[in-house]
Automatic annotation (TrEMBL):
It comes from Peribacillus huizhouensis. This is Galactonate dehydratase. Keywords: Lyase, Magnesium, Metal-binding. NCBIfam families: PRK14017.1 (NF010624). PROSITE patterns: MR_MLE_1, MR_MLE_2.
Amino acid sequence: MKVTGYELFQVPPRWLFLKIDTDEGIVGWGEPVVEGRAATVKTAVDELMEYLIGKDPLHIEDHWNVMYRAGFYRGGPILMSAISGIDQALWDIKGKYYNAPVHQLLGGKARESIKVYSWIGGDRPADVGEAAKDMVAKGFTAVKMNGTEELQYVDSYEKIDQVLARIAAVREAVGPHVGIGIDFHGRVHKPMAKILAKELEPFRPMFIEEPVLPENNEALRDIANHVAIPIATGERMYSKWDFKKLLTDGYVDIIQPDLSHAGGITECKKIISMAEAFDVAAAPHCPLGPIALASCLQVDATCHNAFIQEQSLGIHYNQGSDLLDYIVDKQVFEYEDGYVKIPNGPGLGIEINEEHVRTMAEVGHNWRNPVWRHKDGSIAEW
Ligand SMILES: [Mg+2]
């Protein structure tokens, strides 16, 4: 079998889909995108695909190594997201070729389903109590929300009190046992992260996420020594080498590699297995589309330490187009009692509605994340 061609589709709300064709008529789909830089990743995919045309798509491990190692400069969000989407599409082809789901080719399922959580509250969390109640009514047993708006390096206790009021409203709305993930979104700097983590502890969060930016991960030590809340991070880390120090330092409890940013199925399976050896859990990051989610579920199926999966249905980014719009059989992502079954169809286990993809690629998107500034005019982390 040979790769004969490929197409890229920049589709709303903010995604990029890749379709790889073969001479046997089997096609594979991937989602090579980093949010806000779709066109840049598209160019990186074009450069990488030059090598893959004419190659056997089944030799994924070798192709991954060529894409990663045969470039003198490597790593980072753009190149690794491009590799990720190509890798997903190659696995989709391999599964379809052997008429088996990807998880079967990775060793088989360690679980039949996985818990999912839903986002509430958007960028600037408000009315989160009601939103959390709605999600619990829909069967979710875990939710995630942004903890705070922009925070200065050292900010006021008024803002801390506002965060606490929001989390208190959620806890009161959902009762004592629903999981609440609180995303600091890298918006919080070390001086405030300690305070915020300590103040949040009485609400028994499921985890706090990106309590500081990944480039400041040494600050996790203080937080981990300060509170008993599980610490999650990793959506902005891109390879096993990026995760190496995080794991050996020992202050992380949950890693969140993104299957569309951290080298795809091939690399994320390895990253999550590395974490297993440190007794660290995995909750793959996935605020993206159906191909990214299907890829996550294939890997989750085979990883003992994967305990919950992010998914984007109804997320604040999905304006006008949502998770299920691009797939034929929407039941594949049906959530039951807060769990989703591992897809058992060949390849990634989803069927893409190509006609809809083509229609929406005409619409396209130019999504950018907002630019926030502090009151003094300085740029704020979003
Ligand atoms: Mg996050």
